[in-house]
Every structure is written in structure tokens, then in C-alpha cells.
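Methods — Computational structure assignment.
A single polypeptide chain was analysed. Its primary sequence is given first, followed by the predicted tertiary structure written as C-alpha cells.
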Amino acid sequence: MESNKSLSHTVTESQSNSFSAGKRGTSVRSDCWIQISKNLEDGAVSPSFNIKSKVGNLYGNAIRQQLEELATFFDLKNVEITIEDAGALPFVIAARFEAAVKRMNSEVTYEYLMPFLHEDIKPTAKNRLRRSRLYLPGNEPKFFVNAGLHGPDGIILDLEDSVAPDEKDAARYLVRNALRSVDFYGCERMVRINQLPMGLEDLKYIIPAKVNLILIPKVEEASQVLEVEKEVEAIKKLHGIIDDIWFMPIIESARGAINAYEIAKASPLVCSLAIGLEDYTADIGAERTLEGTESFWARMQVVNAAKAAGVQAIDSVFSDVGDMDGLVKSTLESKSFGFEGKGCIHPRQIQPIHTAFAPTSKEIEKAMKIVLAFEDALAKGLAAVSIGTKMIDPPVVKRAERVIELALLNGLIEKNWMVNHGND
């Protein structure tokens, strides 16, 4: 269907001087198709409108009003504007309209910016929980609005692999508008940009829209992270943005895996290092298997590079959305390797991943005893820490403190657990 749509789009533009953007058809929902056709009449004639909408009885007047506003903003004359609407929200209509306008006239560079739904969008912490990140195709608005209700730690609006090459321009407007107009219910707002150098152009659309984190795909050298950092800082300065925007480089090749540590420590804005196993296994000429023996070295390389650089290690997605037992097993394995998060391609994967990454009650109880013993030794001025007859080394205390930190972040224990636990 995509290929037919693209072909039709090309023929329409080349033969009839019409330019379109968006999606049409009986299976389309929460989206629209907009076509702008040039009239050859003399003089400046106001646009005419042809509106077909599944929700026309309720919102026909509002749709027409928005189209008129958009036509005025882009100073359109002597055109016919057609919309086939399948319940698209205003931010989608605006994005599709802008894409059609700029396909008609590439010299139009100014943007139609929707107002921010929330002006006080907060930055996120470098070490916040990133157990799950839900990928959403950047050109599929039907997935955007309810994504946050599923409770992932982060939502990724994807501009890279999930978007067809001839739809990259349209996806940029859609993702930009979504960042401004959609409530993601406290999830970290992430965007996976395109592979460099194309991804540098993506930044112009998402940085002013208050993105929290940028996933940088197919990173093989630290210099690529620095390229992104330089462009991000320039855009932030231009727009008066002071909040930090974090980077998550994705290792997807043998060369990237070899250079993982240099990539992880390339910038203080790197908060996490991820691995993408589909591209990695293709790069080394291996088939990706459930056992994962073909990618074990690369995964451990990413974990060790991340830990050495002081950032989070994030595992690849589990691609079989129907195999929940396999997902849990894979996530528990990820946790045992030292990963702190995993990608999701379906909402049903989120909660099993959260549960698997959370400390168990046995782990928490053991960590509490170690931390309490350590605090007691400090209070008594003792150099050695022990529980019964067993000495506790500093690395063991550090690991216990991390378990407590994760338990607190996951809401599994109270902040004043020391007082309560000490009274038991």
C-alpha cells in the first residue's frame, strides 16, 4: 500500500501540478491526506476547499477554519485544497498541510508552529530510569496520542528506519508537532534521528520542540557524537534553550562495538549507550538467534564501555511481540549482563520489562542488611564492615546501594526505609 501511495503521489505531482502529503484509504485512522492543486487563473484568487471527513458532522467547520488559517499563513493563492480526513487531530492536519506546501514550493522555509500543550515541559535527569523505551513510527500519528498511557519510561518518535525515504520530510513536521501538542504523561520525550549526516537536519525540528533525549543511530566513532553535540548546542543558543538534552548513541556495527568506550565518553551529554542487534548481526554476517551467542561479545562490550564511562547500558529490542515468556527470559538475561533497559516495539512488552528489571524482594532485603551494616560501621568508626562472620568489601556495598536506589526509583520501598527497617 505504501509503494502504491508513493507511486501515485509521484505521478500526481509530475502530471497535474498537484502536491500532496499524508495517508488516505479505508484503513487509515487519526491521519489525513491533503492535496494542494495549482489553478492557472489570472490574478490572485483565494483558495477553494474540498473537505471530506469521517468526522465532518462534528468537526467539519473546525477543519475548514484550520485549513483557511493555514492557507493564510502560507499565503496561498490560486489553489484548490483537498483534504480526506480520517479523524486527524489539528497537529496532524497542520503537519500534513505544511509538508504539502513545502513539496509544492521548496523555497518556503518558515514553519507553522502549534502552541505547546504544556509550556512547563521539564528536562529529565541523566540517571533517570530508562528500563523501557517504546518505539513509535514517526509518520504514524495514530500511535502517538495514547502511547504515554501505557507507562513506558520513554517514548521514541522514530525518524529513522520506520519512515520511508520519501516520507522523511513529512515525518519531521509530524514529530515536531507531536512534541509540542501531545501529552506523553510524564514519559521521557525521545526522538531517534536519521543516520548522520541527515540526522543533523532533523535536529532543527526537534530541539526547539523541547525533546528530552536524542537517539543517535549507527554510531561508529566518537566524532559523530560530537557532531550532534555541536549542532544541538548551536540550535539551543539560537532559541535560548538552557536545559540539557541527553544523547543515547546506538551501537549497530562491529566498528561501533570496537569503539564503544570512546563513544560512551565522547560527551557529558551521553546518558546511555544502546545496542541495536538487527543491524549488528547483519554487519558481522550472522543470523540473530534467541540464544544470542552471535552477539554476546558485542553486548558485553557495550555494557563494559557504558559502565566504564559512567552511563547506562541499554539492550536491544525483543522482536517477537507474541512471545512473552521469551521476552521475560531475554530481559532477565539482560539484567544479569548489566543492562539497565530494553527497547519495546509493542505496549504489551512494557510491564514485563519493568518487572524483570526491578530488584526482587530477596535482593532488596540483602541490600538493606549490607547498607545498614555499612552505616553502623561508619557510625562506630570501624574500618571493616561485616554481617555475622562475613566481611563486606566496598564493591559489595556499592552494588547494594545501587539495588536500594533502584528499589526507591521503582517505588518498592519508602524513602525512610532505614528508620522503618531499623525498628523491625
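Note: The longest helix spans residues 361-379.
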